[in-house]
Q: What sequence folds into this?
C-alpha cells in the first residue's frame, strides 16, 4: 500500500476514534442524567432521558438494547400520553427498531401508539406519526402508500414532511427512497436539498456529509457518489446507515451491469446488518444476492432465538440481578437505566427462556450460574 493509502487509512481510523468517543460521551451523559433523575425521583425527566438514550442506541445499531429502552417506555396503554415531540420521536425510533429487527409485535405496538398520535396529537406530533406510518409502509414494499402518508398533512406541505426536532440522521435518505419509489422527483430533490443545506451548515460533520452525498447518489444513480457516501459512513459509529449506503451502491452497480461490484457491496451490507441483528434488512439483502446466484447464510454470526444463549449481555445481566431478588426499580438503579428498560429486557428474557415468572427465571439462572 502506498503512502497515500496509509495516510488515508490513518485519517479514517482517526475519524472513527473521534466519532466513537463522541457517541460514548453522549451515552455517558444520558446514563448520568438517568441516574440523577432516579435519585431525585423525577419520573418525567427519567422518561425523557431514557427515550433519548433509546434513540442513541438505535443510531449506534445496538438494536436489542434500543428495543428494551423504547419498547418498555412506549407501551400501548400510554399512547394518549404521547403529547411532546421528544416522546413522539421516541415512538418513531421504536418503529424503526421494529422494522430493522422484523419484530411484528413491536411494530404493532408502535403502529397503535402512532394511531393515537395522529388522531389526537398536535401538528408536530401528528407529523411524527405520519412519518412512522410512511416508514412502515415502505418496509412493506408499498412506496405509494408511504407517499400518501407523506402527503397526509397536506399535498402542498409534502416537501417538508419530516419531523424537524428531533430528526433521525438519515431521514432525508429514507425520504428520497420514498419519493423515487412513488415517482415524485420534486420531493426527492427537496429532500436532497435539505440534506445539502444541513451538511453546509455543519461542515465538521462527516455523517451529515455522508447523508447529503448518499441522497444525491440515489437521485443521480451515481455509483461514484454512493461509493463516496460509503467511505464517509465507514469510520463512523452508525452501522445501519453505512449498510444502507452499501446496499444502494450494490443496487446501482447491478443496474450498470456490474454484478461483481454489486455482490461485493451486498456481501458487506449483509455482514453489517447481520452483526447488529437487523434481521429484516439482512433478509432483503439475501434476496438481492440470490437473484444474482449467490447464497449467504452467516449462521455463525446469529444468536439462537431461544434459550440462555439467545440473550444479549444486557439481558443476561438483568436476568442475574432479578434472580438475586432485586425489584425492577432496584435493577434499574444498579444499571443506571429506567424501570421501563428493565421491563423491556424482562419481556425479551421471558420470551427467550419460555418462562412467565421470576421464580422460573431464578431457577434457570441457577442452573447456568451454579
A:
Amino acid at each position: 500500500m502506498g503512502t497515500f493509502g496509509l495516510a488515508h487509512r490513518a485519517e479514517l481510523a482517526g475519524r472513527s476514534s473521534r466519532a466513537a468517543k463522541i457517541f460514548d460521551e453522549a451515552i455517558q451523559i444520558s446514563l448520568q442524567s438517568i441516574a440523577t433523575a432516579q435519585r431525585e425521583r423525577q419520573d418525567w425527566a427519567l422518561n425523557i432521558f431514557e427515550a433519548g438514550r433509546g434513540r442513541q442506541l438505535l443510531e449506534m445499531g445496538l438494536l436489542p438494547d434500543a428495543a428494551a429502552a423504547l419498547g418498555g417506555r412506549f407501551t400501548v396503554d400510554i399512547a394518549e400520553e404521547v403529547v411532546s415531540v421528544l416522546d413522539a420521536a421516541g415512538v418513531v425510533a421504536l418503529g424503526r427498531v421494529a422494522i430493522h429487527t422484523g419484530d411484528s409485535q413491536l411494530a404493532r405496538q408502535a403502529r397503535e401508539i402512532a394511531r393515537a398520535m395522529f388522531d389526537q396529537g398536535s401538528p408536530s406530533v401528528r407529523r411524527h406519526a405520519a412519518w412512522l406510518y410512511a416508514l412502515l409502509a415502505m418496509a412493506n414494499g408499498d412506496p405509494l402508500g408511504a407517499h400518501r402518508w407523506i402527503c397526509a398533512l397536506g399535498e402542498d406541505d409534502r416537501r417538508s414532511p419530516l419531523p424537524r426536532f428531533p430528526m433521525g440522521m438519515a431521514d432525508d435518505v429514507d425520504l428520497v427512497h420514498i419519493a423515487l419509489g412513488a415517482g415524485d422527483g420534486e420531493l426527492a430533490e427537496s429532500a436532497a436539498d435539505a440534506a445539502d443545506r444541513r451538511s453546509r451548515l455543519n461542515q465538521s460533520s462527516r455523517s451529515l456529509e455522508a447523508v447529503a452525498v448518499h441522497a444525491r447518489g440515489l437521485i443521480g444513480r451515481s455509483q461514484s457518489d454512493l461509493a463516496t457516501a460509503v467511505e464517509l459512513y465507514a469510520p463512523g459509529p452508525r452501522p445501519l446507515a453505512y449498510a444502507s449506503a452499501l446496499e444502494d451502491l450494490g443496487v446501482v452497480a447491478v443496474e450498470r451491469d456490474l454484478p461483481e461490484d454489486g455482490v461485493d457491496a451486498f456481501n458487506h451490507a449483509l455482514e453489517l446488518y447481520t452483526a447488529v441483528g437487523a434481521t429484516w434488512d439482512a433478509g432483503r439483502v439475501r434476496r438481492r444476492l440470490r437473484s444474482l446466484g449467490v447464497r449467504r447464510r452467516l449462521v455463525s454470526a446469529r444468536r439462537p432465538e431461544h434459550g440462555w444463549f439467545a440473550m444479549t449481555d444486557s439481558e443476561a445481566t438483568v436476568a442475574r440481578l432479578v434472580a438475586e431478588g432485586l425489584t425492577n426499580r432496584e435493577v434499574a438503579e444498579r444499571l443506571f437505566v429506567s424501570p421501563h428498560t428493565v421491563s423491556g429486557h424482562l419481556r425479551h428474557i421471558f420470551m427467550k427462556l419460555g418462562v412467565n415468572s421470576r421464580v422460573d427465571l431464578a431457577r434457570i439462572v441457577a442452573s447456568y450460574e451454579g
User: Anything to note?
Assistant: The two ends are 52 Å apart (CA to CA).
